[in-house]
Amino acid sequence: ACYAFSTSRTGAKLPASSNLVRERLYARIIPNERCSPMRVMCVHPGSDIATGDVYDGLIPALRRLNVDVIEYPLSARIDRMANWLDYNYRRAKKKDSSIPKPTWADALYLAAERLVPLALREMPDWILALSCMYTHPDIFILLRRAGLKIAMLLSEAPFDDIAHFRMLPLARIAWVNERRSVDVLKYANERVRYLP
Fold first, then answer.
1. Fewer Cβ close by (within 10 Å): the C or N end of the chain?
2. d(Cα 107, Cα 81) in Å, to the nearest integer?
3. CB contact set of 146 (below 8 Å; sequence gap of 6+)
């Protein structure tokens, strides 16, 4: 393991395999000088308010822990793809009126589809998706098929527990902001944890 854990202010390092350390609630992760930092690809939640604030706070926190963060700007891509689909639909409609109008799911899929080749090129240790409400589930399926580890930080509980329940089987681990949601969401994925 490339990370040692410290529970003291002195920064004394304990082996990562120590069960005592794993049980400590407030253990801090300290990068081991002998290996490269952990690489995490963080997927923006898709909304610039509320969940976007969680993302804006998480990125600098991970960087302070010496995590190599690769950002995927889902919010900006959703806007671009929705406009691109609308533009092409209007152009195609002039030639053929039977063409169906693109859906919101089409825009979400196109916004997130670049995540797959980017993740395969960068090969992060983890893909951390926040909220997951605007990431098309097919993208997570493709990432899992490629053997990449997916973690989800779900900050919209308990209001969006039904949508979270559908996405959780695609994650290796997930954290949720509502303690009462953990018991319900564990039916979808036993590795759901509470994160205040």
1. C
2. 5
3. 116, 119, 120
Q: 31 versus 155: which is more confidently predicted?
A: 155
The DSSP bridge partners found for residue 26 are: none
Residue 11 has pLDDT above 90, yes or no: no
- Report the distance separating Cα 13 and Cα 95, nearest Å: 67
What's the whole-model pTM score? 0.77
What's the confidence (pLDDT) of residue 7? Answer: 40
3-state class (DSSP) for residue 190: coil
The answer to whether the beta carbons of residues 163 and 138 sit under 8 Å apart is: no
Torsions phi, psi for 37 (to 5 deg) = -70, 155
Q: Are 179 and 159 in contact (CB under 8 A)?
A: no
Residue 132 has pLDDT above 50, yes or no: yes
